[in-house]
User: Fold this.
Amino acid sequence: MIDDLLLHAYREMCRIRTFETRLNDLFLEGVIAGTSHFCIGQEACAVGVCMGLEPDDVVFSNHRGHGHLLARGADPVRIMAEIFGKPHGYSGGRGGSQHVAVKEINFMGTHGITAGTIPLAVGAALHKRLQDEPGLGVVFFGEGATGEGIFHESLNMAAIWSLPVLFVCENNQYAMSTAHQDISPVPNASDRAAAYAMTAEITDGNDVAAVYEATSRLRKQLIAGDGPAFLELQTYRVSGHSRGDQCQYRSREEEAEWQGRDPVDRARAQLLGSGIWSNELETEFIGELDADAALAEKAARNP
Assistant:
C-alpha cells in the first residue's frame, strides 16, 4: 500500500475508533438505553476490505457493524441519530445499533442474528449473475457464525453456482465468551472453505495494508468469474462482546499481547516512519475527530 492510501486508511480507522469510543461512553453514562457491539481493535478489517471494494459491490454486515458502515461511507451523524432512536437516523430511529441499511452506498444492513446476512449476500450475487449486473455480494461475519447451518448452506450454494461472493470472516478469537479453538475441530475458520472447493486466504486482520491487498486481489478473481472466495482476517476484539462484558474469560496477558498488534498504532508508526505524518499533524487530526464526534452527538441529542 502506497503512503497516500495508508494515510487515508489510518484516518478512517481513527474515525471509527473515535466514534465507537464516544458511543461506548454514552452507553455507560446511561444516555443511550440498551446495548451495542463495538469493533474497537478490528478497524483494519472494515477499512481494508471496504477500500478494496467498488461502489457496485453490495455489502452486508452483522451485529458488530458500525465500523463497516463508516468505512463504506455512511454519515456518522445519521448513524448516531439512529442509535439514539431519532427520526433523522438511517432507519428512522427504528433500527438502532444492529439494524441499519443505507441503499445509497450499497450497504444492505447490519443484522442482529448470527450468520443472518450470509445467505442474503449469496442472493445478491445470484441476482447480479442473473441480471448481468456488475459487482459482488460481500458479507462480514465472525468466526462464531461458521457453526451455524445457514453458513454451510450458503457456501455450498455459492460454490456450486460459482457466484461472485466474498465471504469475509473477522476471526476475533471469541464467540461471545467462547474461544474459537474450544468449539471448532479445525484451527482456522477458512479451513471450512475447502469443503466447498473455494479459494480461501488467511490475512493479518490488524494490518490494514494486507487486508486491502488481499481484498483487491480476490475481487479481481471474482469479477473474472473465479468465485466465490473466503477471506479470513485474524484480529482481536478489544472490547467485550457487548456493553457490560468484563471479559473474565480471557487473560490480561492475552489482551496485552494483542494490544501490541493494535491496527491503529501500527499504521501510525508506519506513517511516522515514512515522514508523511508527524506528532503535530496527529494532534490537529485528533482534535478534528473529537469535534466531529461531538457534532454527531449534539445532532443526535436534539429533538
User: Anything to note?
Assistant: The radius of gyration is 19 Å.
